[in-house]
Design a protein that fits this description.
Blueprint: H1 2-24, H2 37-48, H3 51-54, H4 58-79, H5 83-86, E1 102-103, E2 110-111, H6 113-126, E3 133-134, E4 138-139, H7 145-161, H8 169-189, H9 200-214, H10 219-231, H11 248-268, H12 285-289, H13 316-319, H14 334-347, E5 354-361, H15 363-369, H16 378-381, H17 385-395, H18 405-410, H19 413-418, E6 421-425, H20 427-434, E7 443-449, E8 458-460, H21 470-486, H22 491-501, H23 504-509, H24 512-517
Parallel strand pairs: 5-6
Antiparallel strand pairs: 1-2, 3-4, 5-7, 7-8
Length: 522
Amino acid sequence: MSNNHLDSHSDTTNVDTVNSNKNNATVESNDRPEYDDEIQKIADYVLDYSIDKQSPNPTDAWNTARHCLMDTLGCGLLALRFPECTKHLGPDCPDQITPHGARVPGTSHRLDPIKAAFDIGCMVRWLDYNDTWLAAEWGHPSDNLGGILAVADYISQKNVSQGQAPLTMRAVLEAMIMAHEIQGVLALENSFNRVGLDHVFLVKLASTAVVAKLYKLPRERIMAAISQAIVDGQALRTYRHAPNAGSRKSWAAGDATSRAVRLVDITARGEMGIPGALTAPQWGFYDVLFSHTNKDLATKPEGNRRFTFQRDFGSYVMENILFKISFPAEFHAQTACEAAVILHPHVKGRIDDIEKIVLTTHDSAIRIISKEGALANPADRDHCLQYMVAVPLLTGDLMAENYEDDYHEQHLSIDELRSKMVVVENAQYSKDYHDPSKRSIANAIQVFFNDGSSTEQVAVEYPIGHKRRRAEGIPVLKAKFRASLATRFIDSRCQKIIALCNDQEKLEQTPVNEFMSLFVSN
């Protein structure tokens, strides 16, 4: 009897406890959602958008993409002169042979598309000389070419081996336009740097979408791949800023575009997606990474921290991209470098007589590249406004070699000039920087001497790579490309490549595998 009584009492207590807990428990709904609207928006864009039929300026978009291809490849070829870059290149396993391996321009490497994407992306970004996009977020949309070119070359070679048609360079140019658009439109009003995230997140996201399209994945698989890129680990900006700036910033984008190729490969094999990657309460990107306890640093007001879109996806970003034509330098300093070159003849004989140098700039330059104190390495120097101004004031030019340790050690007057610089913000410069109708990147320099005299203030509002200076800039871009080719190939090969790249129709019709063969170096 007593045992039965105890059993009965125990059962009653358990039921009461369960009922009580049920009333107070927190449970998660397991109703699987549709893919986030933002993910669907990106997938629909790469699948459905027609540049020829929907772009307001299709000719401008295609031509600019061709010039971007030339400039981006040229930047990569120039980087091959630097051992710190080339040490990252090549197969992960020595003597590895990859059938239909993607070629790495300027080398003899044939690699699997994941490693090839890393290598191409690393080369392109190494000298901080490829294109730029400036808005609430910054970045370099041509970084996506690493994944695009590697995958297009691999697919093309594989298709040919199976008796199928290769991709043409038109597909590469289309992917470039779309990758630029995804990265650039998301950057217009969404500041990842404000919450400490690096802009290469957008490279991973854009590369994933367009590489999935190159592989001809269906809509659901493209969305699944995009969701994988969103929940993947995202890089911190630590390696871009004082006092931790270092060489990782030169290969981070290569890593991002390579990771995109890997995630697409996983998804193509059937890996499921994560539909609520952005919006899942507590666990999604927005709640975990796109908010901040300090509201002054938050990208959006509390309760509204989602991506916002200033405009629909089209071809706007490619048409308005900023080229780094004259200087391998962080873009916020490009106009400052131009001003310094103009001032060089007026100060070259009076360097020791300089009292101070006033650099007038915009808020983003102050936040990113204004530095005092010792500079630890080349990557530190090419992100220092004062260093990038000091060299052309002294020499009349700025080249990648000017950032190297041995050059710096032989020219200590650079640091002496840096110590005399005063950086101030011009509120109008900052306003015009964010104005979508202007997007200026203004800087001004004035040099004051010990005898009370001074130079005129030299101000440059738009760099030569800006859309407002396209007519002036494209001939210089082509000269830069020609010089880059000459560092790796004999003259006859250079002329063949240049002739092809100058012919829009012929380039678009060229099979990707044939185009890449032109860039193989023995």
